[in-house]
């Protein structure tokens, strides 16, 4: 039995990598083009692009691995059948159930890997991806140029006399409301980034307020002005807190359900792969590719629709699919071979 397991694992591994490499390459290219499209909005160098790709890599793996697993399982079993190796195994009292049970072990650990990626890694990667884009967009909006009028920092009009790296010299700010006018001058300033916005830190200056024809002056050593107009609240959450929102947020509940159903797909796919891949080539010719594509699209489509409508309750779809495919496998394959 150990030799049989090793034999099947080796064949499955060969099939898996032959499918994974091109699919992963195509998916990476598509996502990378999407990332590069940000360069039309914000300035990104090659290191920024690589960083964004790393953030999006877990999603590429998560959606690639289930498809590749199913394709590899069908291709492996079809190859064994075409070369009469599966028939030889059945002739020495090795049942189709023995083959599927061996593949179920691989499917179980694949599902564990997918659940880990989707529930633990993807939430953190998505938050870091969004945070990085927000940071770059805000920096692009705060790209102040010396000796130019018309710059704004939040509700303030700002003018800078000179710039040296991340520091500004001879800074002036002006802001007017219905009742007051505010004017600030400072010898120097720098932009600092807080958890959810940008701030301008001013040094050695004066602030003037004109209210009802009365002028008030305040001298300061340090003053911080926050850019609340562009404020984006992005609070990083640990995986537990991230998914806990699913109890009251429909979109988060949908994501959780869909991720779980996709993570369980390798287990759900084993008996379908056996039905499509196990046959006697002397008497049968199976169009496995079209049936496999149909089964894949059916599972993913139903998972999406049910998760969207019923959220967590849609998880019952997995045991129903597994039971149905198992009964069909027993009727079509197990009783025959």
Commentary on this structure:
This protein is an alpha+beta fold and 337 residues long. Helix content is 59%, strand content 19%. The chain has 9 helices and 6 strands; from the N terminus they run ααααββββββααααα. α2 (46-82) packs parallel to α7 (265-277). The longest helix has 46 residues, at 96-141. The chain is elongated and about 100 Å long.
Tag the structure with descriptive keywords.
alpha+beta, 337 residues
Q: Nutshell version of this structure?
A:
The protein is of the alpha+beta class and 337 residues long. It has helices at 2-36, 46-82, 85-91, 96-141, 239-244, 250-263, 265-277, 288-310, 317-334; strands spanning 151-153, 156-164, 167-176, 180-193, 198-211, 214-226. A hairpin with a 4-residue loop joins strand 4 (180-193) and strand 5 (198-211).
Helical/strand content category: alpha+beta
Low-pLDDT stretches are none
Radius of gyration: 30 Å
Average pLDDT, all residues = 86
> Percent helix among the residues?
55-70%
Helix segment tally: 9
Distance between the termini: 18 Å
Largest sheet: 6 strands, antiparallel
Number of E-state strands: 6
Task: Itemize the secondary structure elements and their pairings.
Blueprint: H1 2-36, H2 46-82, H3 85-91, H4 96-141, E1 151-153, E2 156-164, E3 167-176, E4 180-193, E5 198-211, E6 214-226, H5 239-244, H6 250-263, H7 265-277, H8 288-310, H9 317-334
Antiparallel strand pairs: 1-2, 2-3, 3-4, 4-5, 5-6
